[in-house]
Every structure is written in structure tokens, then in C-alpha cells.
Amino acid sequence: MDSLGKPDICVAIDFGTSHTGVAWMMPRDQYSPVQVINDWPGGGDNNERKVPSVISRNQKDPAMRWGFLCDEMDESEKWRFFKIFLDPEQLQLSKQEGISWAPENMAQVHQLVTDFLHHIYLHISHIIPLHFGRSPGESWDDMAVEFIFSVPTTWEKPNIVRSFLKIIRDAGFGTAERHEAVIGLTEAEAAAVATMTRVGSAIPLRNGDVFLSIDAGGGTTDLAFVQITSVNPPMMEQIQQVRGTGIGSMMVDKSLRQLVSDRLQRHPEAQQYLPADCAMKLSQSPYFRLVKHKFGQPVYDQDLFRIQMIGVHHAFSHEGIGVHNGHMVFTKQELESLFDTQLKKIIKCVKEALDLFEAEGYKSVKYVILSGGLGSSAYIFQKLDDFFLQQSSTRACVDGTRVQMCADPQLVVVKGLLLERKDSILRTRVARASYGVVIEQPYSKRDHFSQRIRLDPLNQKKYVTDQIEWLVKRGDRIPANKVFSVTIERRAALEDPRQWTEHIVWSENGENWLPRNMTEPGVSPIMDLLIRVDGGAPSSLVVKKRRRSILFWQISKQYYVCKYDLRLYVGSSGDLRLSVFSSGIKMPGSIAPLMAQWDADTEHEPRPEQKRTDPVELMAFSPESFSASRISLSPTPAVVS
Predict the structure, then answer these.
(1) Where does the record locate the signal sequence feature (predicted)?
(2) Which of 245, 350, 419, 585 gets the most CB atoms within 10 Å of its CB?
């Protein structure tokens, strides 16, 4: 990193349900352009700017084909759509629905994502160094590189984001000494940033303008309301927490497969002339992908659509299943039905966002900006334009609202991630959840009726346990880089280990419904954090005496008191970073990813040789165990009577 904390290279990765995009730039150079990787293995000379999120099922294949290299493989030989199963609820739902192509368990999901992203990492580390000069002897690992990942807004539970952080590191991102892997913006926020900077559009935005960013991708649709606070330099703020729903182009594909399967069920005799997975092949073919994007354009306004079938003889026809000369024929109404089911869900989500927008007193939505794979559909664009026009008769806030598609809808996320890293455009966010620390409070008979009480044997005072200090509340407006803090006091006998465990928790509830302690419903653990005091530097550790009178004797007993500030930073996607301060002095590790193990003899960033330790230690706070990273303090004990 340079003196301003900027790396040599920033790489943005938009890991998508159906496709993955990568772009990079050199943030130290203010004129450095955003460069998109469009040279993918197996992609030929087509300059494909995204690679399919696909990987071979054959784990013993030494080549382990992925992306375009899987194009010629049978659908039964490859994995698709594994990203959506990073949400455990989606995997459970797929099991209930009997989806045959779903992974067996979360361990397999994590392994599939790790394997795929490892191939992405290897390709990135090969391609990017070819495009700039390096000093003699300088390797890719010697450069300061920051990898920035986006996440969907549907990942509301912190454990999903933390699991994803572990996966991307297991895949190779951030493992070199000068490399770092972080979670950046949500997909809707990144699209909004790209729009604001006019990389994604040529919209003439002005100070005070409000626009709604709708990023409809392969597996999710994400919404973000933002307001322009400055055009030059570009700055904006969220005015509503981002929201998302599990709607995307893969749902359109699923509807097509169901339509084809229904035809085949009515005419089983035709199956012998078709490949076993013809429905899946058709839904994932470049021919249907073209129809998805072009459908709805005036030049494509026709009654029948012929889509070429892969693996079917060009002379094969069957009237019953609607195949003519190797092409399956669909009516306009059939294709509309594929989109309309998803469109209704998007509109429902938009209505909920508009209801809240009006309830909070905002007056006008200037623009609605569409991005993403499904967002690039001409049919979706036209229907949403019609929806906002219809809504303008009953909602004053959308009277005059313009619906516009991004100039490059499938790449705005990676571009937005890079531009945000370079210029910090999103200045205020709205908290999507509440985060707190479990604490003890001095016992009060009035306030703590029927609470669990602990008598501290060292100072002989009563405390109520399992109370919660909420640092961030859902709906709070959080300025960029805002850090929240709680002061904690701990005590230990002189002969006891000087270490304490702090419990970090979260809740989906807003301020008025937050539980006060761990016995009330609506609170869940995120992690346990071990704080260890090993003797040695500032005055956070104090020795106190407790005097007792027994008959004619005065007896005193010494014990340690340690005070420290636990500071919490919450990222856009709910990723948490922690640091510890004592007596105003930063203790090991600043605002750093929780996976780092911090040692005591550094005031700022961990020394390079300390950044990586035993993987088991680094991952000790995994969602399954809720144990923690270790933070070691090194204070000088002082004696106070």
C-alpha cells in the first residue's frame, strides 16, 4: 500500500449465479481506466466479458474444466447455479422441492464455490500482469493487490458473508503477503455508484436527485434508493436500506425448462430423438440467451419464435412438442409468461420500496436505472416503464420518473466496486441489521427484576449478565468509515489467566424491537472474540486492592482490572471488522478482517510475516463453532489502592 493506503492494483469480482465478471484498475493513477477481463479460457475470439459460473462435476479430472471449457460437456457432467446455495435456506428449500441438480450439503456447496473461484484467481494472476510493466524480479505476489467482491442484498445474515470471506481466501484471494481480499458494496450499491459516475449511463444527474437502482441479475434482484449530494466530486447517500429478492434470469430459464418438460410429458415418444437433458441444454444455450435479451424489442415483435436445439438433428420435426427442423417453436404469449412471473415479484418488491419512500417523506424519484442480466432484457425494461407510468396517476413521487437502462448493464457492478474504492462515492449507508456486544451491568433491583445475577468474588459487587449493548441499530444512517465503540471492564485474580471472551450478536429487529438481553427472542450470535492480556505496555491493566476486616485483622486481596474499547465497523454487506483500543492507544490490528490473528507488538497493521498463520487458527470463529480470532493485548500493570 502507498501512504494513502492505496494498493498497486484493485481487482473487482462480480461472482454471479450464471456468469462472473472481473475488472481491474491502478487506483494510484487518477487517469487509470477500468479494464475488463475479456480473455477467458475456451472463450475463443469472442471477447466474452463474463465467464459462465460453471464447473465440471468430475473431481478427478486433472484439468477440472470450468467456465467456457464446459460448453461441450453434457449438462449432467457439470455444476451450475451453485452460488445461490451459499444461503443455507436456499439449499434446504431445494431439498424440499426435490431439485436434482442441487449439491448434497453445505460442505459441497463451499467446495464447489472454492474450486470455481480458485480458477478465477489463477486466471486473474496470469492475465493482469501481462498488461503492465514490472520491476526486474518483481512477481505478482510482490505487488500490493486488493481483491474486492460484491455480494447480493439477499445475504442478510452475517454468517453467509463470513462464510463467503473464508471461501474466497481458501480460493487463493488475499493469501500472498501483500494481497488483501475484502467484501465491497452490495450489487445494487455498486450499480448505483457506476450510474452516479456516468460510467454506466449518460444520465444528467443533479444535486438532490433521487434515483432507484434495480440490479436484476442471474439469481437475485437488488434495489437501492440513493440521493445525489454532490455531482463534482461525485458523492451520494443511501436513503433507504438496500433490499433484494431471489428473482433473476435463472428463474426465466427454469420456467422454460418446465414448459419444455410439460411438452415432453405429453409426447414421451419424442424423447428418443432428443438428448436426455434437452430442456436444460435449451435453457442454457446461446440461442435462448439471445432471445431473452432481444425479446420485447420492436424488431423482434413477432408471433412465433424458433430457438435452435443443441444436439438435435436439423431435419427433426415433431408437431406435438413444437419442433420444426431442429428448432423448438414458442408463441409470443408463451415467452411472455416466462418473464411475467418474475416481473410480478420484482414489481411487488418495488412497490414495497416506494411505500417506504413515501412514508419517510421523500417527494420525487427522478430516475429508475436498470442493470444486470435480467435488467438488460428489453421486455423487462418496457414492462417496468409501463408500470411506473401507471403508478404516476396514484403516486406523486413517480410523476415524471424516467426508466433507463445502463449503457453496460452486465458490467456496472465491477465498475462500481472499483470506482467506490478509488473515490469513496457512497458517503452514507443505512444499516440493514442491528449489531451488539453482550455485556454485564451493575445490578439494580428496580431495573433488573428476575434477571440472572452474578456476584463478582473480586470486588464483591453484583452484576446482571447476558445484557446487550446495541452499537448499530437497523435503519441507522451510517457515515462512511464510521466506527462504533463500547468500553468494557474486566477483572481477574492475579494468579488467573488474563483473558476474556466477548460475544458479538446481531438482530433483524429495528430500534424499537431490540431484545435487551440474551434470554429474549430476536437475537443471534455472530462470533466469540477472545481478548488476551499478556503483560507489557500501556496502562490498560490496573492492580486493585480489596480490603476486608475479619475480627481484628485487616486483610487485603489484589486483583487485575482491565479496561479496553471494543470498536466495530460494519460494511455495506454486513461484513464486520473489529479492533481493540486501550487508554486511547490502538492495540494490535486496526479495522481488519476478523480472520486475522493479531499479535501485540504492532500498533497498526500486522507485520507481513504475521499476516498469515495456521488456517485452523484463522478460521476458528467459523459459523459452526462460534469461537473466535485472538486479539492479544500487552499492557503494563499499574497498582491502584
Answers:
(1) none
(2) 419
User: Could you tell me whether strands 367-371 and 210-216 are parallel, antiparallel, or unpaired per DSSP bridges?
Assistant: parallel
Q: Which backbone phi and psi does 398 adopt, to 5 degrees?
A: -115, 15
Kindly state the helix (H) or strand (E) to which residue 1 belongs, with its residue range. none
> How many Cβ atoms sit within 10 Å of the Cβ of residue 461?
11
Cell of 474: 437497523
Predicted confidence band of residue 553 (pLDDT cuts 50, 70, 90): low
Question: Given a cut of 90, is residue 44 above it in pLDDT?
Answer: no
Residues of the chain with CATH 3.30.420.40: 9-191
CA 238 to chain centroid, in Å, comes to 17
Residue with cell 488467573: 496
Are 282 and 256 in contact, with CB atoms under 8 Å apart? Answer: yes
Pairing of strands 323-324, 327-331: antiparallel
Confidence class for position 552, pLDDT limits 50, 70, 90: low
Residue (of 588, 561, 558) closest to 489 by Cα position: 561
Measure Cα distances from 108 to 79, 86, 379 in Å: 11, 10, 36
pLDDT tens digits, one per residue of 56-79: 988 777 778 999 999 888 888 899
First to last CA, the chain: 46
Per the CB < 8 A criterion, the answer to whether 631 and 534 are in contact is no
Question: Hey, which residues does 43 pair with through a beta bridge?
Answer: none
pLDDT value at residue 497 = 82
DSSP symbol at 83: G
Cell numbers describing residue 32: 487509470
Superfamily of domain 9-191: ATPase, nucleotide binding domain (3.30.420.40)
Helix (H, G, I), strand (E, B) or coil at 112: helix
**How many Å apart are CA 29 and CA 471, to the nearest integer?**
37
Bridge partners for 9 per DSSP: 145
484-511: burial string, b at 16+ Cβ within 10 Å, e else: bebebebbbeeeeebbbebbbbbbebee
Instruction: Answer whether 538's CB lies under 8 Å from 636's CB.
Output: yes
Question: Would strands 499-507 and 524-537 be described as parallel, antiparallel, or unpaired?
Answer: antiparallel
Total residues belonging to the chain: 641
Cβ pair 514, 434 in contact under 8 A: yes
The vertex-190 CA angle with 10 and 342, nearest 5°, equals: 135
Residue 566 pairs with which residues in a beta bridge? Answer: 486, 580
Closest Cα to residue 279, out of 341, 322, 333, 339? 322
Cβ-based neighbour number of residue 160 at 10 Å: 20
- Spell out the alpha helix ranges (H) of 61-186: 88-97, 106-127, 158-170
pLDDT band for position 494 (50/70/90)?
Answer: confident
Strand bridging mode 210-216 / 179-186 = unpaired
pLDDT of residue 74: 85
Cis peptide before 606 (omega within 30 of 0): no
